[in-house]
Amino acid sequence: MSGYVHPEVLVETSWVAEHLNDPNIRLIEVDEDVLLYEVGHLPGAVKLDWHVDVQDPVTRDFVHQKGFEELMSRWGINNDTTIVLYGDKNNWYACYSFWLFSMYGHKDMRIMNGGRQKWEAEQRPMTKEVPHFAATTYHAQPMDESIRAFRDDVASGLKNPGRGLIDVRSPQEFTGELIHMVNYPQEGAQRGGHIPGAKSIPWGMAANSDGTFKSPEELRQLYLSREIAPDKDVISYCRIGERSAHTWFVLTYLLGYPRVRNYDGSWTEWGNLVKAPIEKP
């Protein structure tokens, strides 16, 4: 759609359908529901299991540089491969993966607009066949954490008028009525509420009912109406940084905000910190 600052990061389902057999493109499905891939996926797509593939097995952190290189190699990805990410639930985890892959320096990445939902609605081909690719030699850059926020970054800016803090969780989580996602189990936060000064802009407000992103005009109005302007140093958060990565993607690539970071510690960290300030209505 014209009007986005970086339209090149989005591809439509029709474009993907025309490039299913392109050896220079690798489709990666990454779903919140990690069992969906086995039900059926786009022909040629590999599965990224966010529980396992990109998480450090011991520390609460992401896979290290070597592990990321091994993952890319296993999927037959070169440094110049075009990666197309897609998934369920408005591409929530596809954007999370886009954010992570960006830190390791992969240059050519796209999000399939509408994700699984739109592809299925259009009755495009699905398969249960798992593809296999010859291993490659992939070189990742050391992790660039300039697009990642940590709790000290958040805490140090609580009284900074130039900071824009976005809580992308549900309204019930924002108010503290719930300390977990709606219809999901409790995941360890001891307190409910939100980080002081945060604006409530649920991540799903950036998507249409068919899973595609809203228009540039609608997106600009969504954030500007809540005082999240391009001149601010913006940090988004949710519970572990997945939903907020969707907002990071929208602000960074669709609207062109220059300084946006994703706080992946999010509420499962902040809601457990001793004496961390919390607001509740």
Task: Please tell me about this protein's structure.
The protein is α/β, with parallel strands linked by helices. The protein folds into 2 domains: 7-143, Oxidized Rhodanese, domain 1 (3-Layer(aba) Sandwich); 146-270, Oxidized Rhodanese, domain 1 (3-Layer(aba) Sandwich), CATH 3.40.250. 27% of the residues lie in helices and 13% in strands. It has 10 helices and 10 strands. The protein has helices spanning 13-18, 36-39, 65-74, 92-103, 115-121, 151-156, 171-175, 216-224, 243-254, 266-270; strands at 10-11, 25-29, 46-47, 82-86, 109-112, 148-149, 163-167, 199-200, 233-237, 260-263. The strands form 2 sheets. It has a 5-stranded parallel sheet. Strands 6-10-9-7-8 form a 5-stranded parallel sheet. The longest helix has 12 residues, at 92-103. It starts with 9 loop residues before the first strand and ends in an 11-residue tail after the last helix.
Mean pLDDT: 95
CATH topology of the largest domain: Oxidized Rhodanese, domain 1
**What is the strand arrangement across the widest sheet?**
1-5-4-2-3
CATH architecture of the largest domain: 3-Layer(aba) Sandwich
Unreliable stretches, pLDDT < 50, 5 or more residues? none
Number of helices: 10
CATH superfamily of the largest domain: Rhodanese-like domain
- Helix-and-strand structural type: alpha/beta
